[in-house]
Amino acid sequence: MLTDTALRKLKPNGATYKVADRDILPAFKNRLLAEITPDDLRALCMKVKKRGATAIHVRDIVKQVYAHAIMHGDKVANPADEVMPSSIATFAPKDRALSPSEIRLMVHEMDTIPTSPTIRLGLRMILLTLVRKAELLKATWDEVDFETGYGAFRRNG
């Protein structure tokens, strides 16, 4: 059954609980996993989208619940596999970049945020190079020109 206990097994964060409590559990509470169809999930996502919330988050949480159940031996089809993100949301490319003053502020404020040093260094590297995480992870040394100080990172994806 899709219950609060099933969601807790995923060890979700606070935002996930809010979405589950507000949207998923009222719609699917105490229904067997096998009873929830892709059409049911799509209808719920459309209802959430009409409200102006992020329907993709609803789909992803349901997908995780089913993946967890399947991993632990339940023989059930995952309805989220048939509800593609593009069918419930439109994705517009983002073309805004941080201004130099915003980057400076971010670098300064990063030192005050309680987080691990590795996350802080990773964010600083991304801010200094202005590349996506995947591009940075897949970069090779031959893409860096040490004389000019520039990197010509290939776009991945």
What does this structure look like?
The mean pLDDT is 83. The chain has helices at 4-8, 14-28, 38-50, 55-71, 85-88, 100-110, 117-129, 133-137; strands at residues 144-145, 150-151. The longest helix is centred in the middle third of the chain and has 17 residues, at 55-71. With 157 residues, the chain is mainly α. Helix 6 runs antiparallel to helix 7 (117-129). Helix content is 53%, strand content 3%. The chain has a two-stranded antiparallel ribbon with strand order 1-2. It has eight helices and two strands.
Short note summarizing the structure:
By secondary structure, the protein is mainly α. Helix content is 53%, strand content 3%.
Helix and strand arrangement:
Blueprint: H1 4-8, H2 14-28, H3 38-50, H4 55-71, H5 85-88, H6 100-110, H7 117-129, H8 133-137, E1 144-145, E2 150-151
Antiparallel strand pairs: 1-2
Helix pairs in contact: 2-4, 3-4, 6-7
